[in-house]
Every structure is written in structure tokens, then in C-alpha cells.
Amino acid sequence: MPISASDDIDVLEKAKRLLAPDYVPSEDEEYMNERQQTYFRMLLLEWKRSIHSAAGQTLQSLQDGPIREADLTDRASSETDWGIELRTRDRQRKLVSKIDAALRRIDSGEYGYCEVTGDPIGLRRLIARPVATMTVEAQEAHERREKISRDD
User: CB of 50 within 8 A of CB of 14?
Assistant: First the structure.
């Protein structure tokens, strides 16, 4: 039986809990200091490891054999579950690329700064979405432009 998509919803939260519980980046510190960069690097690496682990479990389930339900309804239900599981893994594959890009930005000193404006993205946004590349304002403007171009 495949791993359910709901098992993966809290992967980021689990990764946060595995980090040192005695430190969470604070607005009282210098923005993107070495300790914050280390925190986000470890968070991103743990998140990536968790995704790879879940993907390995899915792969193992696929290798264990085909769906063998005799009842057509049960088989259809299982195939639907597998389809959802595989779409989830595909989204996570794309997420791993974003995680790798965020790690490269940490290495180059660009992490935490908006790729559009150059302004700090903000700790609260990065804690919620460590792969963020834009400030909330820049992201909203980007989404508005995207919606307008889709509507044309």
C-alpha cells in the first residue's frame, strides 16, 4: 500500500523539530548571520533527507509488486491512491530542486534576500517557506502579473 500524501504534509515541521530546539532565528539578531544561515542550511538538508526517505519508501512499495485486488472497485481505488502518491512524489521532486537552489543561495550569500528587489525576505517567511525567493510583496506582484497574462 502506498504512503499517503497526508504523511508528507508535515515533513517541514518534522524537519524543524529535528533541529536543535534551543535555537530559532530571531528578529533581535543581525539578519542572515552565520547562525541563521546554519539553521536554514540544516533545515533545508533535513527537509531534503525526509523527502528522499519518503520517496524511497514509495519506490520500495512499487517494487513489492503490482496491485492484486480481485474486486474491480478495490483495484480502481488502489490505482487512484497510487496516482495520487506518484503526483505527490513528482511535486516533491520539484521541491528538492528548489531546496538545492536555496542551498546554493546560502553558499553564495544570497539566501534570505529577494531576487527581484534585493530586500530581506524576512525570517517569518523563511521559517514558513525556507525555499522562498521573493518578499511577500514581490511574490504577490508576480502572481498578479501571472494572472493577468493568463487572462489575456
Answer: yes
